[in-house]
Every structure is written in C-alpha cells, then in structure tokens.
Amino acid sequence: xxxxxxxxxxxxxxxxTRITRFFDGSVSxxxxxxxxxxxRAGAKRIDISRIESDRGPVLRIRDDGCGIxxxxxxxxxGDSGWDETIARSEDPAGMxxxxxxxxxVTVRSHAAELEVAWQVTITPDAWESGMPLxxxxxxxxxxxxxxxxxxxxxxxxxxxAVKDAARFCPVPVWLDGKxxxxxxxxxxxxxxxxxxxxxxxxxxxNIHVPRELAxxxxxxxxxxxxxxxIHDVDGGRGWYAKVDIIDAGHLQLVLPARKEMVQGxxxxxxxxxxxxxxxxxxxxxxxxxxxxxxxxxxxxxxVFLPEAxxxxxxxxxxxxxxxxxxxxxxxxxxxxxxxxxxxxxxxxCAERALASGRLHGATPVEPVDEFAGYAWYDELPRVLGWxxxxxxxxxxxxxxxxxxxxxxxxxxGRVDAIELEIAVQASADSGEPAEILSLPADVLIIPDxxxxxxxxxxxLLSADCAITPSELAYxxxxxxxxxxxxxxxDSYHTQQATFDMQARFAAxxxxxxxxxxxxxRVREAIREHVSWLIPKDRAxxxxxxxxxxxxxxxxxxDGAALGAAE
Length: 566
Fold this sequence. Notes:
- The chain is 26% helix and 25% strand.
- α1 packs across α5 (152-167), α8 (344-354) crosses α10 (469-480) and α11 runs antiparallel to α12 (514-529).
- The protein is built from 13 helices and 27 strands.
C-alpha cells in the first residue's frame, strides 16, 4: 500500500444515515429550530397550530418571513443558505431542519426574492436514504409553513414547549390563535450594560444561583452557563449576571443542538465583562462587604471601590455542638480587637475570664480573614493566641491550650488559681513583639478529644470560683456536648437530655458534694419518670434501700406530705 502525499478532512457518506441522532427528537427541539429560522428570515409573527390529518395530529408552524429561496440548500446537511450577515452574527449550522428527521414533514415556502412558492414532502424513510424528493408549486403567498406529524409525547408536551420557546423570543408567537406570553430576559435587573453586541444584566440576590439557571439568551434560545457570582463576605448580598445576546458572532453555541456555550477566549472575555459590570454595580451602591481579594480584582478590571464597610460582629464563643461562629451584634465606630478561633471548650472558658473587663478597652469581635489587606482591618489589635496557667498549689503549675498533651493526671476539683494568658498584637503590621496579658479565670474544662462523655472530662475550679451548679451545667453543655448522628444512635433530644442530666450531676458533685448531688439526681429521676404516675393532689412517701423500693400514699390532710408534693 502506498500512502498519499496529502490528506484533507471530509464528511463520510454514512453521516446522513445517522442524522436522526443529531437531535433529541423532542417537540422542543423542533420548535426552537423552526422559530430561530423564522426569526432569521425577518418574520414579524409566528403561528403555531394543531390540525388533524388522516395520519393523525399534525403540528403546523407558519411565519411571514422572506421564505426559503433555495430548497436544495434547505435540505443539504451543513449548508445553511443564509446570507453573509446572518452567517457572521449567528453562526447558523445548516442542520436545523434535521431536528425533524425521521418524521413525516411537508414544507411550503414563498421565496420573496424570486416571487415563487414551492413545497416538498419528506417521508420518514427519506431522511436517511437520500432518495429523490418531488418539488412542486405551492399555494402560499408569504413566509414558510412546516407541517410535522406528531407522536403522543409531542401532543402532551406541546403547550409547555411553546410557552418555553416563546417566553424570550423577540418575534411574537401564537398558539392556536392565542398570543403567547413574552418576557424580557433581563427583566428586574438592577442595571444593564452593553458590551460587544450583548446586554449584560446585573442582579442582586442573597440566594446562591443554581448552576442550571439559564444565564444566556440567544434570540429566545436560553442556555445555562457559568458566569461570575460575587457575594459579600458575610452573605448579606450577592450579585450575578445574565446575558442577552443581540449581535455577537464571536459567542457561539455548541452545534447542532445549541444547548451550551462553546468554551474559549470569547466566553472568557464575556465572563470578565460580567465580572467588571458587577463591580461597577457595587460601586454605585457606595458601600459593600466584599473580600479584599475581590477589591483587588475590581481594581485590576479598572473599577475602583472603597474599602469594605468597617464593622464586625461581636465575638461569641463557639459551642461544641455548632462548632461554628454565631454572629453577634454589629460593632462599628468604636475600638475593636480581633479574637482567635479555637476549640469550643477553650473559647467558652476564656469568655468567662474576658467578662471581667475589655482588652485594651476594645470590644472583642469575630475575625474575618477575607478582610485582611484592608487598611482599617489591618490596623486592628488582635489576640494571637491564649492558654491557661493552672496553679494546683505547692509549686505544681502547668499550662493548658487546645493542643496541649497533659504530662500528668489532673483530677476534677478546686485548684489554687487559674489564669488566662493572652498574646496581643497591636496590629497586623506591628513590628513589636506581642504583649502578654494575664486575666484571672475561675473555670477550666478539659475534655477527652475522643468523647463528649462527662466521665472523660476534667473540670477545674479556682479557689474563689463562685459559679452556681446550673451555670456550670450550662457551661459544660456548651463546651462539650455534640450529638452522635450515627444511624443507630438515640435521637438528638434523647442525647441532649441525657447529657444535661449528667452535666447537672457533675456540677452538683463538685459544688455541693456527693450527698446533695445524689439527692438532686433522685429528684430529677422521679420528676422525669415517676411523677406523672401520681394522681393529682395526692402525695406518696417512698423509701429505697439496696434496690428495694417501698411506696405508700400519704394522708391527704398530711400538711407536710402535701407541701413536699407541691
């Protein structure tokens, strides 16, 4: 075998035999292609109707455009027959008619420039066979008319398909004599910019934009596309773009179905234009909460924004259950100090120590890393870190932080003193070493990393700690409780109630002693599991020893018993 010296691309003869697989065969695909062709032909009106024939239901689509001058090109795969202007601005593929492939179709058209009308009938087997088709004169005085035999699924889907196709179409569409609703694709946009043959609409919304949302309108054909979505750091506002293509031949759809945009430099340029339009929209508002990275990006695109509004949220210690920040009240126009992010039990205990006074006379606030780089944010003092120093007496002192591995056994109870040591930096750019502050603390909770079981939690109280049992129980829950969401675990309510009971018992043991703690535990058990069994206004005396329980009703006139019941 001898190889040729040159080769070239070509289209195989077998392509036509597979043409029915170029489109999905839906009535929507048929309508989209027919409406697009009618619009290109200069139609001012498109009429869609359902008629009956001896073969069954038929879909008729008629327009008042300039008609089809060359029926040969009309049925030639890949030859659109459109003039240079249309070819440049819209990139017609010459495949649209083949969305009807495999169906019984009659086409009638009046070629305005030739002042002649023709018609052709294409049987289902003719689409792939390439068999000769008879061309005959037609009784039509304007535009093009297409009749297509409908299947049952087409009949069911027709109404909605017409509504969808007509919604953003620039040409009025009628269905069975009723005008279909038309909307502007960029309706309700905050503002609209023109760019390279497109209209870019900017929308303000605090809801995340679904990926499947139609973001680009191509003369009534809408397609999803990933376009910029820019939002405030704290989720208060977001901006996204939609694009209405007017005359932009550089932006192309994937052929033949045109259900997505061609990826490439033109689309990337559009995305950048949308991004700049969003920043210009933000600039008109006069204030924002964008990240410093977005601020820099706007500057790179020639849009100069002010810095983000200088306010932050009051610092709130995280809980073990949420393990996330709960934004507090807004702080603005007063001294602020940035707090670190740490484990829940550290933050909960630190918050008690901080309650005694303000660091540097400033309000503790939540850090927002995305603001780093703004002048006002970088100038704020900040807590770099903290740890607890525990004095157990007789020179036994140890330090504890979230990553500390204790080298000794520490038992719950009172210690001589607890201090919270805080490293404070004057600003982000401060060249000075951090200042170490020391604040008295009254409680330190040290949990086991692997469990929220209070049997594995160490609770240390300073000698002068005045916390109440209920306060300590609440602190334990905030610092240590998180529910187990395994499928075989108890419900959240059951887990929370069990932990709450354990926390109250542990608090009572430490603060009131063993006897008081046991009695309160018994009272809680009776209130929870027994009291509902006792008739109203009756009293019961109980005695329990070594798992033996005696119970009897007290006399109703027994004041002591009734008083106890109340």
